[in-house]
Amino acid sequence: MREELEKLVTAGKIQQRHIEPLLAIVQQGYCLHKGWGFGKVKTLDGILGRLTIDFTGKAGHGMDLAFAAEWLKPIGRDHVLARKANDLAGLKQEAARNHLAVVKLVIQNFGGHASADQIQQVLVPDVIGSDWKKWWETARIEMKKDGHFQVPAKKSEQIVYIAQEVTVQQRLLAEFRAARGLKARLAVAAEVAKSATDIPDKAAVATEVISGLNAEIQAHLNTMPSVALEAIFARDDVRSALGAPTEEGEANEAAIWGQNPRLHTFLEELPAAKHRRALESMKAHNAEWAVQLVGILNSVPAKLCGECCKLLMQEGKTQLLKDTIQRLVSQHGASSELLLWFGKERSDTFADILTPEVFRAMLTAMERDAFNEKKSNRLHDFILSDHDLLPELIESADIEIIKDLTRTLQLSPAFDDMEKRSLLARIVKAYPAVQRMITGDQKREDNSFLVSWESLERRKAEYDEMVNKTIPANSRDIALARSYGDLRENHEYKSAKETQRVLSRRKHELESQLARARGTDFANPRTDVAAPGTVILVTDLNIGQQFTYALLGAWDGNPEKNILSYLTPLAQIFINKPVGAEVVFEGDGQKRRLRIDSIQPCRSAAAQ
Fold first, then answer.
1. Which of 86, 15, 96, 1 is nearest to 45 (CA)?
2. Is pLDDT of 445 > 60?
C-alpha cells in the first residue's frame, strides 16, 4: 500500500504528506468527516486516485485522495461508532450490563472528555432507547463512585475520564476545599450526605465539612439569613448521614427565626426544593406560623403558595385558609399567583367557595397585572388551556349571575376577541340562554309557554325541595365520602359527585322552565277555534270513531285520560282550527284524517 501511494506522489496525484494519513485511514478501515460523520472505507483506486467510502446516508461516495487525507480522521474498530456499525447488538448488551464501560468508551473517543449531551447524541436511540433518562441517572451515580470520572454539576460541562483513580472521599473533600462561595459548598455538602456509605473515614470528612459550614453560617447569619438556613439544613444532613456529634455553640434553626425575617422575601430567596422544609422549620419555631403564612399567600409565587396551603391544611388550619381566600376573592384583591394555584387546586375542600366570583377575581387580577412591570401571563394561559375551569366555577350559579359574568367578560381587556369567543362558548355550552345576549340579537321572541297554576306550583315545589334539601344533602354526602380517604378508590365519593352533576343539570332546567312559564286557570278560552283551555270532539274519518281531547298547559298532559299538552304534535295540528276543519296527523307509521266536530271551554265540558 505504501509503495502504491509513493507512486501516486511521483505521478503528482498526491503529496508526500498525504501518505501517512491515507495509510492510517485505509488500515483502520473507518473514518470521520466533520460534515458527513462516520464512514466505512470500501476501496482505494490508485489509478483514479480516489477512495470509496460508505458514509451514513451517503453510501459509495467517491473522494479524491488528497482531499481525503486533509479532511478525514481515521478511527479504529474499537471506536464507538465503528462498534455501532459492526456489532450494535453486542454494544447494546454491554450498555445494559456495564454502564461505565460504554461511557468510558465514548469519552475516550472524544479525547478524554465529553458533555452529557454529546454522550446522549452518540448512544440514543441506537444503543439506548426510550429509557435514556433512567440509564443516564444510573451511570452518573456509578461514575461518582468509580473514582475515574470527574462529573460536573451542570449538564453542559464536560465529564472527564482520568486514569488514576480518586476515591469518593478524596474527590468530595477536594471539591469542598475548592468550592468558591457558600452556595457551591452547599452543593458538595449535599453530595457528601448522599455518598455517606462510600466514605471510609466518616469522622474526618464530617469534621472538615461541618466546621467549614459552621464558619460560613456565622458569616451569613445576619446578612443572608435564607442562605444561612439552607446551610444549617445541609450541615444537619451531613451530620445525620455521617453520624457526627453536635458542636457546642453552633447556630441552629431557632437563631434564624428569632430574627423575624421578612417572610415572603426570605422564602423566595430559598431554592424551591427547600420551601417545604423551611416551612416545617418555621412551624416548629414560631407560634404564630399559621397567621403569618396566610399573610403572605397573596405575595408569593403559585408554587410556594401551594406549599404554604398544603402545610396549613395538613395542620388543621383549613378553615383559616378558606376564610382568607374567600375574603381576598370577594374583595377582588387576590393576586394572579394565588388564583393560579387556587384554580389548579380546586379540590372539593374548596367546593363551597369555587364560584363565579373566583373568575371575576381572576379577571380583576389580570387587569391589575397589565400595569405591573413584572407582568406574568401564567394565569391568562391557564384559564384558556383548562377547558373545565370556567364550567366548574359556574355550574351551580343562577342565570342572572351568569349573565352579569358574561357582560363582565365581554368588557374585560384581559383577553383578545378570539380568546373571549372561546371562553364565551364554554359559558353558552352550560347556559344556552345567554347565547342571544352574546351574539347581540336583540329581537325579543316570546318563548314563554302556558301552564296551569296547579302544575306551576308542583314545579316550584320540586325546585324548592331541590335547592333547600336535596342539594345541601348531596353536599354533605360529598363531604362525608371525602373523609373516607383516597378519592381515586372512593366509590361513595364518585357516586355523590355524579349525583351532584345530575342535580345541577336538573336545577338549571327547572330555573329555565320556571322563568318561561306563564300560569293560567284557562278561564274564558276562545271557542271559535281550538285553543289551550278547550275540549274538542274529533272524528277519525279513517275508522269513523269519535274521540274527545282536552287541550291544556305544557305540564298538564296525561295521554291515558286524553289530556294533551297544547305543545304536543297532536295538539298542535288542532290549534287555531275551527269546527269542521279536517287535518291529517302522521303517527305510528300511518296517516289519520281527523275532523273537529265541536269546541267547548274545558270547564264547561267538565261540568257536563
1. 1
2. no
